[in-house]
Amino acid sequence: MKNLIIVEHDNHQLHADTLKVVSAATQTSQDNTLLVMGSQCDAVAQQASQIDGISQVICIDDPAFVHQFSESLAPTIANIAKEYQGVWCCSSSKGKDLAPRVAAKCGVGQISDIVQVIDENTFIRPVYAGNAFAKVTSHDDIRVVTVRASAFEVVECNNQVDIIHQQVTPHTHNVELISMDKTESARPELT
Question: How far apart are CA 52 and CA 161, in angstroms?
């Protein structure tokens, strides 16, 4: 099984939850590729290339991906995903927006918010507000999986793999960023 893991980042720094998604994906395969999509995101690709359990990093750097809208990322990811059996991303607000779009473009179902990997086809996910767990099995050609990061450990960063830079033609969309209000807090992140 070949896995494509979507890197969550802000174009400068890799989000720590990506390390937990890699931890989950490596339980199904040792052939794992990280996909970094953004604008001026070479630093993120360098960080990603050091993650253990990864065989390569694909970096798609284009000004059209500066805000990483799911509407523009999903068609490109779905096109790349044809070469993989698993597409993995974090169950964050970005991942929850992106994964259903990728799954729909691939014509497969999505496996949401997993907390345990049984094998490459079978996963455990919470249901009923976390009061029960369901065993979900998928036999789709491509499994689109979102990972609850708090359920997995962080992988180490002692690796060094090749970064493959690819050029794509971004898909046009009718989404425009009007403003971004970021709340700064001195409190620790709870996730």
Answer: 9
List the beta bridge partners of residue 90: 147
Q: How far apart are the first and last CA of the chain?
A: 29
CA 144 to CA 123: how far, in whole Å?
12
Per the structure, the complete domain to which residue 38 belongs is given by 2-165
pTM of the predicted model, to two decimals? 0.91
* CATH number of domain containing 16: 3.40.50.620
- Burial (CB count within 10 angstroms: exposed 0-12, middle 13-18, buried 19+), residue 74: buried
Tell me the C-alpha distance between 114 and 104, whole Å. 19
Residues of the chain with pLDDT under 70: 191
In a domain, 80, yes or no: yes
> Would 183 be classed as within a structural domain?
no
Predicted local confidence at residue 100, as pLDDT: 98
Give whole-number Cα distances, 138 to 87, 88, 135, in Å: 13, 14, 10
| Residues 97-150 pLDDT 10s | 999 999 999 999 999 999 999 999 999 999 999 999 999 999 999 999 999 999
Establish if 95 belongs to a structural domain: yes
Angle at 29 between CA 82 and CA 51, to 5 degrees: 95
- What is d(CA 64, CA 71) in angstroms, rounded to the nearest whole number? 11
Q: How many structural domains are present in the chain?
A: 1
Quick check: 120 and 63 in contact, CB under 8 A? no
